[in-house]
Amino acid sequence: MNITRTRHVLSWLRDPGAYEAWNVQGGLRCGEAPFMMPTSGFIGFLWDDSFRIGHQHQGIDVFGGGELNVTPVVAAYPGYLTRLPEWKSTVIVRIPDDPLQPGRQIWTYYTHMADPGGDSFISEAFPPGTFEEFIEAGTLLGYQGNYSGDPGNPTGVHLHFSIVKDDGSGEFLNELEIKNTLDPSPYLGMPLNARQNEGDVPVCNDQVDS
Ligand SMILES: [Zn+2]
C-alpha cells in the first residue's frame, strides 16, 4: 500500500476544499491525450497500486469530494455501451479501435455508481440489460457512488475507471485482474502508473475542451 497516496486520500476526503490544486476536471482532455477525464476529483489511487498482498489495482480511483449521486461521470471516449442485467453500479464501453494501437479492440469500465445498498446512480438512459448502445465522448453515464469496492480501500465516494483488454474474440476479459487491464497513463495524459509514480499527485496543467 502506498502510504503517501493513502494519506492524501484521507486528507482529501476530510476537506476537499483545502486541496483544490489536486482537483482534475471531468469532461476535459489533458493535452493531446485521446481520452477525456471521465469525472472530476482527486485521482487518489493509481493503476498497479496494491491494497493487499497479491492484489494490484486494475484502474484509477477518482474521488469527487462530494456527496453520493452528485459528481457526474461521463464517457471518456466514444464506443458501444453495455450494462449487464445484474450490474447496479457498472457500465462497460467497447472501443473497436484503440486510439493508441489502431486495430486493437479495448473496453472502458466505469464502476461504483451506486450507494452501499445498491441503489443505482447510473443514468436512466442505460437501464440494466442495455446492450451495445453507441455513445459519444462526454455522454453522461451516471454519478459517483460508494457501492462495494476493494476491501482495503478507504471508503469514499469515487469512480473506479479502468481500461480492459479484449479476449481476442470480441469479449472483455475479467476486469478484476490487472493483467487484463492497460496502464491508463497514455490514454489520459497523466502519470497514473503506481510503479512509476511514488507519490506525486497526478494533475494536468494543460486541460483542454475539445
Ligand atoms: Zn478502484
Short overview:
By secondary structure, this protein is mainly beta.
Secondary structure layout:
Layout: H1 3-14, E1 29-30, E2 42-45, E3 60-63, E4 72-74, E5 79-82, E6 91-95, E7 106-111, E8 133-135, E9 140-143, E10 158-165, E11 181-182, H2 185-188, E12 207-208
Antiparallel strand pairs: 1-12, 2-3, 3-10, 4-9, 5-6, 5-8, 6-7, 7-10, 10-11
Zinc ion binds next to loops.
Q: Segments where pLDDT lies below 50 for 5+ residues?
A: none
Computed Rg: 16 Å
> The biggest beta sheet, please?
8 strands, antiparallel
The span between the termini is: 36 Å
What is the helix/strand order?
A: HEEEEEEEEEEEHE
Count of alpha/pi helices: 2
Task: Bin the helical content.
Answer: under 10%
Mean pLDDT: 94
The count of β-strands is: 12
Going by helix content, strand content and strand pairing, the class is mainly beta
Residues in β-strands, percent? 15-25%
- Overall shape: it is globular
Bound molecules: zinc ion
Describe what this molecule looks like in 3D.
The chain has helices at 3-14, 185-188; strands at residues 29-30, 42-45, 60-63, 72-74, 79-82, 91-95, 106-111, 133-135, 140-143, 158-165, 181-182, 207-208. The protein is mainly β and 210 residues long. Strands 2, 3, 5, 6, 7, 8, 10 and 11 form an eight-stranded antiparallel beta sheet that branches. A two-stranded antiparallel ribbon has the order 1-12. The chain is globular, with a radius of gyration of 16 Å. The site of zinc ion has 6 residues, from loops.
